[in-house]
Amino acid sequence: MPGQEAPSSQYEAAIVDALTGQSLSVPELARQLNDADVVIVGEYHGHHASHLLQARLQQALFRQNARQILSMEQFNLDHQADVEAYLAGRTGETELIQDANAWENYAGSYRPLVEFARQNQLPVIAANAPADIVRCVGRLGKEYLTTLPSNQRTALPAQAFWGSPEYQEKFTSTLSGSHGDAPEELSGHLLNTYQAQLLRDNTMAHRILLAREESPGHQVLHTTGTFHSEQRLGTVEALKHRAPELTIAVVSPVEWPSTEPDMRLADHRHRGDYLYFIQPRPPEFRNPDRERQAMQERFSRHRNVSCE
């Protein structure tokens, strides 16, 4: 990419304005984001550069505006009380990890965000839908929500499965592995899987809006997997659908392979308002049999979840 060098380590991120191609430091990015109501930073889960950028941007935004809310895909709404107990000093970090069912990479990836919020007495929003409900929707479809107790259903958004045709096409194309082979009509397991995805996106949008209602004038920094936000789809479009007046800025990661020394901004600017280029993650597997076994073990962990 003209005027930009590829990141030289797994911690580095080269930030650019997607529209102009201007290179930005973290403080410069924060200044451009100063007037945004919601800043959504997509991540590749577990990538050091994503998490380091999120932590640095959180601090830079706070220095400009101390009225800040941290919203996180990485905690589910049914664990909001557990998150608040930790922030209030009633529990320790291991208790937070256990009680709130924190992600396995919490300490290495999300601790800096939560600690900065705790030290500065900032709200932290557990934004994602409850994991067991998402799994059951993935098995049984959206009708599963009608079986929930009223307190669980009312915690979820009224429009729990709103989504655009563009997002559905992106979702099915990603699963099918090729852009032109996505089915026009979803059915069966694929439909249920898509509805589970929509439940996550709409719940995160709903939780962000509730947080802004409770703390007017606060800027929300939301961390999420990039699929939920890039191209301004997923959670972003769910937010705009509910609150079109919001100013939402999307910061998206792009992997810069060493085999492509001349990256073209034009090929990626659709992903977000701002992009940060990072080194690719190492491949998880070289052996396809071991990869299949690992996937089977990963999904078998939750087979005992009852959806009755």
The helical percent reads 40-55%
The tally of structural domains comes to: 1
CATH architecture level-2 label: 3-Layer(aba) Sandwich
The CATH topology? Rossmann fold
Tell me the number of strands: 8
In angstroms, what separates the terminal alpha carbons?
53 Å
Reading off the top of the CATH hierarchy, the class is best stated as Alpha Beta
The H-and-E topology, N to C, reads as EEHEHEHHHEHHHHEHEEH
Number of helices: 11
Strand count, sense and barrel status of the largest sheet are: 8 strands, mixed
Low-confidence stretches: none
Shape, per Cα inertia axes: globular
> Roughly what is the average pLDDT, rounded to an integer?
94
Strand order of the largest sheet: 2-1-8-7-3-6-4-5
- Structural class call reads alpha/beta
The fraction of residues in strands falls at 5-15%
Report the C-alpha radius of gyration, rounded: 19 Å
Region (Disordered): 280-308
Keywords: Lipoprotein
Biased composition (Basic and acidic residues): 283-299
Pfam family, one: Cofac_haem_bdg
Q: How would you describe this protein?
A:
With 308 residues, the chain is α/β, with parallel strands linked by helices. The chain has helices at residues 26-32, 48-64, 80-87, 93-99, 106-119, 131-140, 150-154, 165-176, 188-214, 235-242, 288-300; strands at 14-17, 23-24, 38-43, 68-76, 124-128, 219-225, 248-255, 274-278. An eight-stranded mixed β-sheet has the order 2-1-8-7-3-6-4-5, sandwiched between helices. The longest helix has 27 residues, at 188-214. The mean pLDDT is 94.
